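Fold this sequence, please.
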Amino acid sequence: MKHTEIFSRILIITGIFLAVGVPLFFWSGTPLIHARISESGGWNPDVIKANVNEPLHLKLTSDDVVHGFAVGQMDMQSVDVLPGKVTDITLNFDKPGIYTFFCTRWCGLNHWRMRGTIEVEGTSDSLEAGSEPALSEVEVPLYVTLDLNLDEPHDAPVIPNSQPSAINGQQLAINLPIDLSVDTYRARSPYQVFDELNNTSLTEAQRWDMVAYIWQSNTNKESLANGQKLYAQNCAACHGENGTGDGVFADDLAASGEASMQTMTGADTMMMQTPVDFTDPARMLGASPALLQGKILRGGMGTGMPMWGSIFTEKQIWDLIAYLYSFQFNYQ
């Protein structure tokens, strides 16, 4: 065999190795994340390390049912994680910190427990070269500033006889000096504003219409659409598509809580309750946006309501809150 032929074969074999072996080498070095329903362990591993401005390559697979993967407070589309198949994704982080990844598919009663963290180390590009990283300022949530007790009953003592109309309220507002500022809106419940209008000549129905107008003035179509999308993706399975507390997991939550109280076992489920009915005017009209912010950020503390503080951005939380009030007010 001629030397040139031997050399050519060596080149061909080397090329095949490089074409197949090198990608396989990097693929084999990519973390494989297994997804299982929460009762079977959730994400494994549930802690991932990454560096600022270095692509993080992940492989995702499910060991049981269809799951979804997303990282909280990041602008990314949810990725389906299918049983027996491997999905490759690449993430990029431009800031250090601890990010929460979570399941976006309603895979079971404890779906919300399917969470993990990505610990990102390094220095953000926003810091000047040679400067020391400054401690990021953490904004204190409004419900903390107002010192609200999230667990205290807050039912409105007076409720409207029919759904208040923002359009009617807008007509009434022409002749009345009212405060439409976002600070007033977020800090007060609809009932408190209704009560403050007691010194006007308006009837009770007209006062509720004014409240509806004030609430509508502090949102817009884009925010309501975003809030509706967030609600459908993250809340409807428990609270129901129409906010009536009758989602597909509502009965399971109630049964789980009842069983725990009877056996006095299972600290995590002992206080699980039926999901809140957002169409209940007494409950919703007595709750300020700041109070709802606290409940969403913190969660229900054992009631089965998860905490969303590490998942939603501040804007997403206010958009979701604005949408929740649409179960009470007619904005059309």
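The longest strand covers residues 56-62. Residues 3-28 form the longest helix (26 residues).
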